[in-house]
Amino acid sequence: MIRLHGYYRSSTSYRLRIALELKGLEYECVPVNLLKSEQKGKDFTNRNPFGTVPLLEVDGKNYVQSMAQIEWLDEAYAERALLPSDIQDRYVARELAYAIATELHAPLNLPVLKYLANEYGKSQDEIGVWYRHWLARTLDPIEARLAQLGTGDLLFDRPGFFEVCLLPQVYNARRFGFDFGDKPHITRIESACLALPEFQRAHPDNQPDNPERT
Ligand SMILES: N[C@@H](CCC(=O)N[C@@H](CS)C(=O)NCC(=O)O)C(=O)O
Fold first, then answer.
1. Tell me, what DSSP letter sits at residue 204?
2. pTM here?
3. Average pLDDT of span 84-101
4. Fold of domain 2-80
5. Integer CA distances (angstroms), 129 to 61, 132, 175, 182, 214, in order
6. What gap in Å lies between CA 200 and CA 210, rounded to an integer?
7. From ligand 1's centre to the CA of 195, what distance in Å?
8. Is residue 192 predicted with pLDDT exceeding 60?
């Protein structure tokens, strides 16, 4: 039994939903409301001392930290691999996915944005400028790398490790009004992925804890 404790709009929870969908694994979503700080409650932090989503529960064991979870899932369930079999391709998938996970996610996370507002009195407009600045710093070189690699509709022949990380970040970027006008490779991959049922089922719009859906 696989349970994913997450929040519909959390990009790391969205990563896990895409990974589980692409691997064809059955899972149950357990909502954790970040706006009510449920991730900081004792019940939750006893299982995940980082106090962040997603928390992946498999056969009674807890797994935390999205990139480790995704790599673990890919090793534990070898079918429909997310990482390519060729070592060079695997390197490229990791290079681009970890650029998003390590450089981009941290300065854009909810506690950072709250800190800017509460400790430094920054307005929503100023926070938007911050958000788009950090997005461009990593999405610009990712776009350049995709051009260099001659990428088509997807990084490789089917969606995997990179697309799992890219789509949630693009979703967030669009919420914050990021201009993708000069990013044809990223937007082509986005369109190709959003056309697939796995990505549609994983999308924040289709999660039961999305208040706009219920
Ligand atoms: N490095 C962690 C980051 C997890 C993370 O920051 N999750 C966010 C949602 S995308 C969260 O739980 N934020 C609430 C908080 O930090 O209090 C991972 O990849 O799992």
1. G
2. 0.97
3. 98
4. Glutaredoxin (3.40.30)
5. 40, 5, 13, 18, 31
6. 14
7. 27
8. yes
Measured from the CA of 65, which atom of ligand 1 is nearest? Answer: 20
CA of 148 to the centre of ligand 1 (A): 31
In words, the CATH class of domain 87-199 is mainly alpha
* Minimum-distance ligand 1 atom for the alpha carbon of 54: 20
**Residue closest to 19 by CA, chosen among 27, 7, 8, 31:** 27
Region of residue 198 (phi > 0: left; psi between -120 and 50: alpha; otherwise: beta)? alpha
Q: For residue 51, is pLDDT > 90?
A: yes
Determine which residue's CA is closest to atom 13 belonging to ligand 1: 52
Please report, for the chain, the start and end positions of each structural domain, with discontinuous segments joined by +. Answer: 2-80, 87-199
The strand pair at 28-31 and 61-64 is best described as: unpaired
pLDDT tens per residue across span 106-142:
899 889 999 999 999 999 999 999 999 999 999 999 9
Report the pLDDT value the prediction gives residue 214, as an integer from 0 to 100. 56
